[in-house]
Amino acid sequence: MKSLPNHLTISRFWMTAVMMVCMSVDFPYALIVALGIFIVASITDALDGYLARNFFGCTSFGKLMDPLADKVLVCAAFIGFIELNSLSAWMVVLIIAREFMVTGMRLLMIEKGIVMPAGNWGKVKTTVQMLAICLLFFGLIWPEVKWFPTPGTTSCIPYSFAWWLGLGTALLTAWTGVVYFWQQRHIIWEKESEGS
């Protein structure tokens, strides 16, 4: 854990905690600070991967903890949006369920000596989630802009912008989970048969 990419990965856990405080405590510019922290954390996600691939080298720690840090950051933000009435709870539950299942499979593979890096579908999912989170922050900070998903009870009404944004993000997240399990099915079955 001595390389810079791994330190950047760990920093996302700390930034997630500060972001959640800003989303939960009412003080001037709290949501703007939370948005700023989220953007910085998202940048470190791209930066640590770039540094690891091109300068420091990829490590088993980074392959596991980098996607895990992304999941913690994103799931924390989505949970915060439930409290702020910007998302329906069932959408967030679907997102978090997928993340737990994929993380569980990663841990299972580690026990079998396999470290699985994030795939292309996972990267697309993470990018869409981060863009959706930024838009939801915009709706909280600038509710007067009609093109942003505004908070309140109307955001949970079907066919509103926030509802479609949450639905699309949740369905894409679930779909990438299905793809992830399907792509790894041979590894799971082969390893299980070897151990039997």
Automatic annotation (TrEMBL):
GO cellular component terms attached to this protein's record: membrane
Family: Belongs to the CDP-alcohol phosphatidyltransferase class-I family.
Catalytic activity: a CDP-1,2-diacyl-sn-glycerol + sn-glycerol 3-phosphate = a 1,2-diacyl-sn-glycero-3-phospho-(1'-sn-glycero-3'-phosphate) + CMP + H(+)
Keywords carried by this UniProt record: Lipid biosynthesis, Lipid metabolism, Membrane, Phospholipid biosynthesis, Phospholipid metabolism, Transferase, Transmembrane, Transmembrane helix
Full protein name: CDP-diacylglycerol--glycerol-3-phosphate 3-phosphatidyltransferase
EC number: 2.7.8.5
Enzyme class: transferase
Name of the gene this protein is made from: pgsA
Pfam families linked to this entry: CDP-OH_P_transf (PF01066)
A biological-process GO annotation: glycerophospholipid biosynthetic process
NCBIfam families to which the protein is assigned, alphabetical: pgsA
Family matches, as InterPro entries: CDP-alcohol_PTase-I (IPR050324), CDP-OH_P_trans (IPR000462), CDP-OH_PTrfase_TM_dom (IPR043130), CDP_ALCOHOL_P_TRANSF_CS (IPR048254), Phosphatidylglycerol_P_synth (IPR004570)
Membrane association type: Multi-pass membrane protein
Transmembrane segments: 12-41, 71-97, 118-141, 161-182
Domain of life: Bacteria
Pathway given in the UniProt record: Phospholipid metabolism; phosphatidylglycerol biosynthesis; phosphatidylglycerol from CDP-diacylglycerol: step 1/2
